[in-house]
Each structure stands twice: as structure tokens, then as C-alpha cells.
Write a structure and sequence with these properties.
Length: 349
């Protein structure tokens, strides 16, 4: 088997075979006419539920990105976040949802490093947040999110630190259809709890992806859309554009990329690993992902990334078109500790 076959861990066949594992409290839907009819008739559908990033969040002229490689993971997290601007957006009494990557039951970099998550939780606590929630929904081949969280160490960290943990599999979902969507004809569903928190902190992983080419802060939000909507997305030839578009429903206050270990090939669950011990942070998802892609290029990665202008990649390009983040490298200000910033900059442009 060639390398491409070796690392291809998810395909359309997986979604068809495992579709019986879909969970949810509402009526099961079939793709096509039933799906569209349910959308039209469901009383939860409301344009008022949608969030237009371009309207609600002004993109600054220049965005800071913190990149840190320190003697330990804890310090790397703190340094990267501080270089990106810190967590002063959190006020005493706020509710904060932390969204790690628990796509599967594979240890990091298949999922978020529990040590990175623990430090993020500690930092949020220090800001006086009243309620801290760790939440995610795993991919279709791994339907039991709570079990996956337990296996990879996420659940243990959350319990020890006294925060709430939500496996979103059976929670309440609401339809959203943000303005400007081209590929999500009927919109999609997100957890109702997303609308009830003051801040989202997006804690993704730097890794390649066998279908979407890469998964970082943009694709991490796939974990916050309903599994049946994910099936539609994964069966579409426009999956990469749809990843960009679904980000219009979310407005994270901070994005953190766990690059303690990364996949340079394969992914999202298993692949060729590199131990890097870096953390990247930014308020801006595009700036964050372009920096993560620069890291992959530094390490040597797939043909889909290595010598390509990633500003033209469908994930990045479509997200920019709908106003998710910065639209050119001149708007990215890299700030580093223990890293060679110039090497990153030369690969972002």
C-alpha cells in the first residue's frame, strides 16, 4: 500500500458504513428531500440565530500571532497566548466554552494534548470566569464522544480541574443559516449552548488531513456542527469550501494551535508525526492557520501544502470571502519566543 493509502483514515465509505451510529434526540433524517422538508418545517429555524462574522466582529488592520517553544508545554501555552494579546477579554463572571479537538479516540496529535487543555483551563480560571465548559462532538466513526474524551485524557483533566464537560452528541441543536452562504443551501445545526456562552476558546491541533488537506482552527469547528450535517459536508465535492463557510456561525475570542506534536502526512486520526513542542495563538483564525501551515512547510509536508500558495486554498479563500479573518500576509504580525520568525514569515507569503 502506498503512503496515500496508508494514511487515508476517513473516506466516504466510512460515513456510509457508520451512518447507523448517528446520535441525536431529534428525528433521524435522510439526506435529500426529508432533510430539506425538516429544515423548512422546523420551528427552531430562525435567521436571528445566525451570526455574521463580517457584521459582528471587525477585523483589525494587523493581527498578532504568538508562536512559542519553551522548556515545557505549560510555559509555551502561556507565552504564545500572551504574545497574541492575552485573555483580558474574559471578565469575572463570564461563561467560557473551550473547544478542543476530540475528533477520535487517538492520542495527540490525533486529538488535543491534555496538557495544553489543562493550561488553557488554568488561565481561564485565573481571569475569574464563573463557568468553564469543555465541549466537543467526535467524528462519525467514533460516535461516543465521552468515551473518546476519557480514553485520550481530556475527561480526566476537566474533572480534576473542576470544569463542566459536555459530549454534544445528544444535546439540543439549533438551525443556523448565516448570511452569504453558497454551499450550505439549507444552513446547518450547531449546539444551542454555543449561543449561551460569553466566549469560545478554540484549541485545535496542527495536522494534515487526508480529505481536507489540513485541519487547524477553521476545521476544528466541524466538531460544533451536527453529525448529519457533517455527512452532507463530507459527501460534497465542496467540502473544503464548506469548512470555510461554517466558520461564519462561530466567533471565537481566541484560537490556540497545539503543535506539541503534529502530523505532517496522514491525519486526522493517525499519520506521520513530528514532535515540535510549539504552541501558536491568535485572535484570528486565518492568521492562526496560515502560521500553522507555515510550520508544516518548515517541517516538510504533503504536496497539497508544501509548495502551494495556501491563501488560495478553498478552506482559507472561502473563509476570507465571508469575512472570517485577515486576507493577506501583510496583516499578520508574528511574535515569537524560541523560534525563528523569519522562517515562518517567508512561508506565509
Amino acid at each position: 500500500m502506498d503512503k496515500k493509502g496508508k494514511y487515508l483514515s476517513i473516506g466516504l465509505s466510512s460515513f456510509l458504513i457508520l451512518s447507523h451510529a448517528l446520535l441525536g434526540s431529534e428525528k433521524e433524517l435522510t439526506i435529500g428531500r426529508d432533510y430539506e422538508e425538516f429544515f423548512r418545517n422546523n420551528t427552531l429555524v430562525s435567521k436571528n440565530l445566525s451570526l455574521s462574522v463580517s457584521q459582528e466582529k471587525k477585523i483589525p488592520k494587523v493581527i498578532d500571532v504568538g508562536i512559542a517553544k519553551e522548556e515545557n508545554i505549560r510555559k509555551a501555552v502561556r507565552t504564545a497566548v500572551a504574545l497574541a494579546g492575552g485573555m483580558d477579554f474574559i471578565k469575572p463572571g463570564d461563561t467560557v466554552l473551550i473547544k478542543p479537538n476530540v475528533n477520535s479516540d487517538d492520542p495527540y496529535p490525533g486529538t488535543t494534548n491534555p496538557q495544553v487543555l489543562a493550561e488553557v483551563i488554568a488561565m481561564v480560571k485565573e481571569k475569574g470566569a464563573k463557568r468553564i465548559i469543555v465541549a466537543d462532538s467526535s467524528g462519525i466513526p467514533w460516535p461516543n464522544t465521552l468515551r473518546n474524551m476519557e480514553k485520550v485524557g481530556i475527561l480526566d483533566v476537566a474533572k480534576k480541574m473542576g470544569v463542566e464537560v459536555y459530549a454534544l452528541d445528544n444535546m439540543e441543536w439549533v438551525w443556523v443559516k448565516p448570511q452569504g452562504l453558497k454551499y450550505w443551501t439549507n444552513g446547518f445545526r450547531i449546539p444551542k449552548i454555543v449561543k449561551e456562552v460569553d466566549h469560545i476558546i478554540n484549541v485545535a491541533v496542527v495536522k494534515t488531513h487526508s480529505i481536507a488537506d489540513f485541519t487547524m482552527s477553521l476545521k476544528n469547528f466541524v466538531g460544533l456542527i451536527h453529525r448529519q450535517d457533517r455527512m452532507i459536508m463530507h459527501s460534497s465535492r465542496y467540502i473544503k469550501e464548506m469548512i470555510g463557510e461554517l466558520n461564519s456561525a462561530f466567533n471565537p475570542s481566541l484560537n490556540i494551535l497545539d503543535a506539541t506534536k503534529v502530523f505532517v502526512r496522514g491525519g486526522p486520526a493517525k499519520g506521520e508525526e513530528r514532535e515540535v513542542n510549539m504552541v501558536i495563538a491568535s485572535y484570528d483564525r486565518i492568521a492562526c492557520d496560515m502560521t500553522g501551515l507555515s510550520l508544516l512547510k518548515l517541517l516538510g509536508t504533503t504536496e497539497a501544502i508544501q509548495n502551494k500558495n495556501m491563501w488560495e486554498h478553498p478552506q482559507i479563500k472561502r473563509a476570507i470571502e465571508i469575512g472570517v479573518g485577515v486576507d493577506n500576509p501583510e496583516l499578520i504580525s508574528l511574535k515569537g519566543s524560541g523560534v525563528d520568525i523569519e522562517k515562518f514569515l517567508s512561508r506565509i507569503k
